Amino acid sequence: MLTSAIILFAHGAREPEWARPFERVRDALRSDGARVELAYLELMTPTLEEAARVLVSEGVKTVTIVPLFLASGKHLKHELPERMSALRRNHAGVEFRVSPALGEDPEIISAISAWVTRKMR
Amino acid sequence: MLTSAIILFAHGAREPEWARPFERVRDALRSDGARVELAYLELMTPTLEEAARVLVSEGVKTVTIVPLFLASGKHLKHELPERMSALRRNHAGVEFRVSPALGEDPEIISAISAWVTRKMR
Predict the structure, then answer these.
(1) Is the full-model pTM beyond 0.95?
(2) In this predicted complex, what is the ipTM?
(3) Is residue A116 within 8 angstroms of chain B, CB to CB?
């Protein structure tokens, strides 16, 4: 039983197929042996709270929330910290971490730039 | 004078700092010598139409619109095709292409998965 888990946190949308890229990331991580759930800010389920509840009920003690957002706006700067506070209040004894957003990592910026360059060939 | 150009197309948000990751991608591509503009769907300027007008006025003949969206929802499936049609009507003699969204590329999915794995170490 893994006591550490990841929640990939995505925005959500009305069209089910919108979720495909995030499901692919989740599946790639699972095939590497990680305990990973996908959760959404709005319009899709599970919510962050629902995904956390499942992991905690399974005995997970450390949850890292990884925002799969290219950029940080009000959702990540204001809503996510409030939700993190609520998670910590509701699940004493479980450590909740949050990572910077995807687009804040220089390696991701390089990967995106290289991808755009490939489009131009 | 380059006759081909790229428009990086991002969602937009209220906070100016939201745009930083996209500006970094634009700057990386410009430093490689590409003619690149950044345009937004909403909440930020320039719009796609404004960016296209500038490029066309400078003599650009082929414009590739690259959606910097992780996933494709209504914005890319419905709004963008309508805007592409309008661009083609308004700028006869200029070729407008559109690339698939960022999150549809398997290499981007791999780069994101690797980034998440690094967060867990």
Answers:
(1) no
(2) 0.91
(3) yes
